Amino acid sequence: MLKIRQLLVDVYGCEADLDDAEFLRSTLERASEAVGSTIVHAVAQRFSPVGVTVIMILAETHLSIHTWPEHGYAAVDIFICGEGRDPDVAWDVIREELRPASFDVRELTRTIGEKRT
Question: Where do the domains of the chain lie, and which CATH numbers do they carry?
């Protein structure tokens, strides 16, 4: 049985530019490197008039961020599996870069190899 932690984070009052796709992509790249993950593919999509979504497909699952710059809000999903890979390490990098006034972290534990009823 394998247990995988996934962090869902609501981020408020960010000082960082949440409309800068390259900055956000670079932030997720640094987060994936810090946790020891391998980036398979990255997609960044800008929206009009503002907003960005960045998704990092990792060999060890994914990282994503969806932003609403007009509200200083971002939704972050950190789903990383693998022995010794801690999603909190990725969150530390992202939090440091976004510089939020506040945030709410919800944690899910996914279990592989055990039938749940």
Answer: 2-112 (3.60.90.10)
Q: Do residues 67 and 97 lie in contact, with contact meaning Cβ atoms separated by under 8 Å? A: no
> Hey, CA dihedral for 25, 31, 34, 38, is it positive or negative?
negative
Q: Give the span between the Cα atoms of 14 and 92, in whole angstroms.
A: 14
CA 32 to chain CA mean position, Å: 9
Q: Is this model's pTM higher than 0.85 or not?
A: yes
Each residue's pLDDT, cut to its tens digit, for the chain (117 residues) gives 778 889 999 999 999 999 999 999 999 999 999 999 999 999 999 999 999 999 999 999 999 999 999 999 999 999 998 778 899 999 999 999 999 999 999 999 888 886 666
